[in-house]
Here is the input.
Amino acid sequence: MSAVAYPVRFARLVKFEHTVFALPFAYVGAFLAVNAVPSAHDLLWITVAMVGARSLAMGLNRLIDAGLDARNPRTARRELPTGLLSPAQVVLFCAASLGVFLVAVYQLDPLVHWLWPIPVVGFVIYPYLKRFTWLCHLWLGAVDGLAPVGAWAAITGTIPWEAWALGGAVALWVAGFDFFYALLDVEVDRAQGMHSIAVRFGERGAAFLGARLFHLGTVALLVVAGLGLDVGVLYWLGVAAVAGLLAYEHSLVRPGDLRRLDTAFFTMNGVISVTFFAFVLADVLV
Here is the structure.
């Protein structure tokens, strides 16, 4: 096997390209925390911490769910079920990712030296929750919502209510699109005794209604955060852009028609996070 093969497999294991979902919102927290461009030192280590944390979270998820993935036609070709990576290799990858995360954390404000176990515990618990409750979607949202909160704390050593509002907006955004994502596996989840909003309440209505309500909450919390911060018109244009993009995302899927779900989930959510960050960046620069 070539030396290039393993890095490629690990990148596929954790879907490294999907870091674009969470990283821009960490930057949003960092930029709004100081209402300016943070130092290169802080931006570097926040980026490293986010990459390490997300790699750890995805590695743990793939490791814990390897048996479930092997029994699901949609996921059976992943690296662990097919043997392209061994469990021992993924354990080592997770350990390395944790190490990278911790090195980055200890370059930032002392407050996060004490707080780092919180997301790590969240990463470990999440894969198991789907075995017990449909509220797993909310847990995933809450863990991802720590991105702007953690970045804010990493720079200022404080966590004001505006940071929590941003974190809540991200939490509702992630949980809402995870309602949609669960629709891909509803029959397999039901057969294997897994839990999701679609399994619990039926796939035709609850997931769609829940996602709409949560995404309305996302926009509302972005508004609330902006009201407490010294932001300009570009921030508000960013909030309007998020609202419009979420509305478009919801137009792509409907009960009984999931043909464009991949576009709604993967493409649009990346566009939403990058677009909002671009508006925040422009706002702090003017």
Observations:
- The mean pLDDT is 90.
- The CA atoms of residues 153 and 242 lie 24 Å apart.
- The two ends are 51 Å apart (CA to CA).
